[in-house]
Structures are given as C-alpha cells and as structure tokens.
What we know:
By secondary structure, the protein is α+β, with helices and mostly antiparallel strands. The chain has helices spanning 28-36, 52-57; strands spanning 11-14, 19-22. It is globular and about 40 Å long.
Amino acid sequence: MLSNCDCCANYVYDEEYECYTCMVDLDEDEMAKFVTGAFQDCPYYRNGDEYNVVRHQM
Length: 58
C-alpha cells in the first residue's frame, strides 16, 4: 500500500543524496514523523498525478 508521500508532487528524487526527499520545509516534529513513517494525512500533500484533471473531465 502506498503512503501519501509515495504519490505526492512534493516527494522528489534528489540525485545528490540518491534517494527520495520531501521538498516541503518541515519543522522538527514533522520531520521526525516523516522519517519514522508516521506522517499520515500530510497537510502539504499535492497529488502528483498529472493526468488526474484529464480523467476528471472525461
């Protein structure tokens, strides 16, 4: 099962660190939740599916 982060537009691959990272500037508590995988229902979530709007219009 995918978490919100796995399909979020803010979750991008960082070539320097060679891993996926969140591009949102998280505070210390949010970062702890993100790293431990306990970040449910993220308030910064943006759907990364570019075709979502197209499917909605059909």
